[in-house]
């Protein structure tokens, strides 16, 4: 598929099914802990500075944000998990919203699950991966902030993440940096292959 990735815009924000776009364009959802670099990933992939706001206030975006890409596909930005200052009630609401989207959305082709290359995956990261595997949703693991780790240590960090996640080698694993744009072409290849 030929996609003009420069032709992108925020389409709508949704809390539940009734707000989702009503067509059959393929969707790639993006999930990850607050501050992992999700908004930066979207901006980098779409060659934009500030389409998805890189917020100084993690956890503020509590909606599913749908981005139209060239009328051919969508990114769906799932609000970041693991933000401590959110109440239990808010977390439950968040959980139901994500679960409804991930388990019922027929447009969904794959989830880009972002983890920080510098650290071992959190319990939430592991839980998200297990959830996606359980529902047999194709996963692309994107390890962010690779520019903050010397190249000579990339392998070591990649192995540690894979081990902690109990990574399935049939999934994609991509080292990524929104600063250097490392991994961008690979990420597009992996995404387009899932559409
Ligand atoms: N060095 C570096 N910083 C990054 C990278 N991606 C995101 N950041 C920074 O990490 C912080 C959180 O990024 P953001 O995209 O808002 O994370 P989100 O909460 O997951 O959407 C910001 O200060 C970004 O500039 C990256 O690849 N490399
Ligand atoms: Mg964000």
Secondary structure blueprint with pairings:
Layout (H helix, E strand, L loop, with lengths): L7 E7 L12 E6 L5 H8 L18 E6 L3 E5 L10 H17 L3 E9 L6 H12 L4 E6 L9 H12 L6 E4 L8 H11 L1
The structure holds guanosine-5'-diphosphate and magnesium ion.
Guanosine-5'-diphosphate binds next to helix 1.
Describe this structure in words.
With 195 residues, the chain is α/β, with parallel strands linked by helices. 31% of the residues lie in helices and 22% in strands. The protein contains 5 helices and 7 strands, in the order ββαββαβαβαβα. Strands 1-3-4-2-5-6-7 form a 7-stranded mixed sheet, with helices on both faces. β6, α4 and β7 form a beta-alpha-beta unit. The longest helix is centred in the middle third of the chain and has 17 residues. Magnesium ion (MG) binds next to α1.
